[in-house]
Amino acid sequence: MDGSGQSTELALTADGLGRAFDDRWAVRGISLAVRRGEVVGLLGPNGAGKTTTVRMLTALIRPTEGTATVDGFDVGADPESVRTRVGILTETPGLYDKLSAAANLDFFGRLYGLTADVRAERIERYLRLFSLWDRRDDLAATFSKGMKQKLAIARALLHDPSVVFLDEPTAALDPEAAFIVREAIETLRKAGRTIVLATHNLDEADRLCDRIAFIRGGLLRIDSPAALRGALDGHGLSVRLREAATSAQVGAVRAVHGVRGAEMGDGVLRVGADEPQSVAPDVIRALVASGADIVEVRPEQASLERVYFEIMGVTPGADSLEDHV
Amino acid sequence: MRRSIVWTVLQREWFETVRNRLLMSTILLPPILLTVAPILLTAAIGASSLPPELEQQVLAQRPEWASFTPGELAGAFAVQQFLVFFLLMPAYIPLSIATFSIIGEKQARSLEPVLAAPIRTSELLAGKAVAALVPGVLAGWMTYAIFVVLASLLYGPALFGVVTDPSWLAGVFLLGPAVGLSSVVAGVIVSARVNDPRVAQQIGGVVIVPVIALVLLQATGTLLVGPVGYTLLAIIVLALSIVGLRIGVRLFDREAILTRWR
Description:
Order of helices and strands of chain A: EEEHEEHEHHHEHEHEEHEHEEHEHH
Number of domains of chain A: 2
Number of helices of chain B: 12
Oligomer: heterodimer
Radius of gyration of chain B: 21 Å
Distance between the termini of chain A: 62 Å
Strand content of chain B: under 5%
Mean pLDDT of chain A: 86
Structural class of chain A: alpha/beta
């Protein structure tokens, strides 16, 4: 139990959270629970309500309906306590260009009430962690975009928050800078930080998140990347053979318990199965027993991109450029 | 309100202000000019005497100047017109700093991380307001002190008496800071609505108009304001500033900044 009497298992909860601007709902019906050390992605297109959700969860704006807590502190009733417990990387780094890297962090350390000793220790720790220590006295204005983003992440961590919110951390960055920032996030993930990552980058969400919440005006679905993929048809095994499988060999595979179907095409035998890893040994045994030479066996999964389109209800290319040419 | 947080904001504001060359030039240059210009002008006018009709008018308004020589009277009349400068300084310097500070943060999108910290809006606004107000008021007072020293050294005790009479003291030390506060308030309100510091300064410059009107009325003899008048004016301006501050605080609301400031 923490100071507010809540379970220490959960760092963040939201129940029916929604926000309207004037008479238009930006987002509503957000309900989720984030465990400590978990990385949860908020995935959705631009304007889906990701930033509004992050702002409500960080007590920057009040929810119109619903509740949310951080460490048991309610974002609406006790916003100041929530702000002391969260760190946020905003869409833009928002650094003070005329201050050095260390001075930027020092300013925020003071706002969070850290003592001089603690500030000095943490500024060094995080600048070293993100390889910025040698540039600590340089003005933020002289930093590249990737370095600015890393400095902003260091700023979000300075007060040792329970939950770190990263809002579009790699948007508008070139591939090299985006790589640097993803590495930084990976470092945090390995360190066991609780992270909420708002992004519309599928690969980023796939690589970094334990669970992904699909948002578009509300919460559409939340699950692990593997479970999300598994929910789609097309889940199975891809078996490459030295020679094309005979009908007898295909029939032997289809007879394996747990296999939904098997089909030969482009030199690869595609095997449909709900639990590919469970059926793989039996499929391999059946093929070998029927005289097939196996070159490679791979689990075949739906891409997160396909999952995204499926959940968002989008048909890619439905209104394609070709239609207008 | 936690003073340590206000002080933190204030220090950062000043740190950035002294590194902003454009802003520093607008802060430093006018006080230098405003110190030298009255002295030179007074020297030029003090060498001659006022036209007889004007002299009679001035003496009718200022009977305490009856013992002055024609040169001293001309100098006293000239120097009297410069009181407005010492009211203008606390007006435009805070306006410049406040608008640069708020619009600069808007443009850099640096307010969101600050608002995400456990800082209260009142603390943030207080830090910014004091950081803008103090340099303007101090510049006005320092320039006035230099002006008094130079006036007394160059033109003798008669002019020293003119520039240190109670109406000057009330104007510089009471109305000046009140005008400065109204200027900060104008800067906050206008900066919440526009995105260009120069536009904000031009619109916020409206607060200077009543000051100029006051001095014009005084110079033409239409309205003579004494120490009590300046004190009352200071109280009125202060009251108006407090009302404006309430509007400013509302415009500076966290949600308004995050969702409406573009």
